[in-house]
Amino acid sequence: MDTWRLLLTPPARGAWNMAVDEALLESVGRGESLPALRLYAWQPPCLSLGYAQPFSDVDIPRLKERGWELVRRPTGGRAILHTDELTYSVIAPPDEPRLAGTLLESYNHLAQALLAALRLLGLPVEMQERSAASQAGNTNPVCFEAPSTYEITVGGKKLVGSAQARRKEGVLQHGSLPLNGDLARITQALVFPDEAARARAAERLLARAATVESVLGRPVAWEEAAQAFTAAFHETLNLDLQRRSLTPDEEARAEELAESKYAQPRWTERASG
Fold first, then answer.
1. Domain boundaries in the chain?
2. DSSP the chain
3. Mean residue pLDDT across the chain
4. pLDDT tier at 96, thresholds 50, 70, 90
5. What dihedral do alpha carbons 254, 256, 262, 266 form, nearest 10°?
6. For labelling, which of 120, 187, 236, 270 has a CA lying 20 to 30 Å from the CA of 65?
7. Is the pLDDT of residue 256 over 80?
8. The pLDDT value given to residue 135
């Protein structure tokens, strides 16, 4: 059993959340910190774009009307509206055996822990393998409507959206578990040709994705979900998870990255489309 850090960080703004994940990746890559499982939330609600997703997908006036923030992730994938959810991140060095192999192999390995966590919450989840052909040409801007190679579903509906980045420092994978609320809200902050197209996108999303509450018929608090994730990662990946905080150096680096990178338009708008 290997020791990892468990970081339960309070709800924060989007730029800070992404900066913390990157600061942890740098710290772990230098060997200054143990690998980490981080569980967190977002305040205020924030729309995040994938690393290469066009900035032109975002309807900025509508986003601002709703008081939502915008950030670009260091990982790939499509847009997610972060609110009423548990977000997880896994940060480990490149030689971590639990993340060995190809990107898909490491994602599949971590997915076993995610499946276990959701089953602890009482969700009858399964993992569906999608072919590359099913994803080819898909330009949908919404993560929870776009198919992924290994997709965690319940009743055929997507339940978790995850993405991974690999760098010389190591591996960062983070993902979103919607706990409650209206998943179709995200369509209010994205560009569509007209309102009919927006309404159709909202209908498709609700037909293809689910929240924990919509499946269980009861609310699940962030703390309950966090306990399930902690127990499942401990058991499934054979980890001794030690509750820790960010080190002073990690916190300082996260503040620097939030200010100089993730809160800057030159990063957010880097892929203009």
1. 2-268
2. -EEEEEEEPPPB-HHHHHHHHHHHHHHHHTTSS--EEEEE-BSS-EEEE-TTS-GGGB-HHHHHHTT-EEEE-SS-S-BEEESSEEEEEEEE-TT-GGG-SSHHHHHHHHHHHHHHHHHHTT---EEEEPPHHHHTT---SBGGGS--SEEEEETTEE--EEEEEEETTEEEEEEEEE-SS-GGGGGGGB--SSHHHHHHHHHHHHHHB--HHHHHSS---HHHHHHHHHHHHHHHTTEEEEE----HHHHHHHHHHIIIIITSHHHHTS---
3. 91
4. very high
5. -160
6. 270
7. yes
8. 45
Catalytic residue chosen out of the listed positions 28, 47, 81, 143: 143
Q: Indicate the range of 12-26, 46-60, 80-94, 133-147 predicted with least confidence.
A: 133-147
As given in the structure block, the two tokens for residue 84 are 């009423």
Tens of pLDDT along 124-167? 998 877 654 444 444 566 655 554 667 899 988 999 988 889 89
143 is catalytic: yes
| pLDDT at residue 104, rounded to an integer | 80
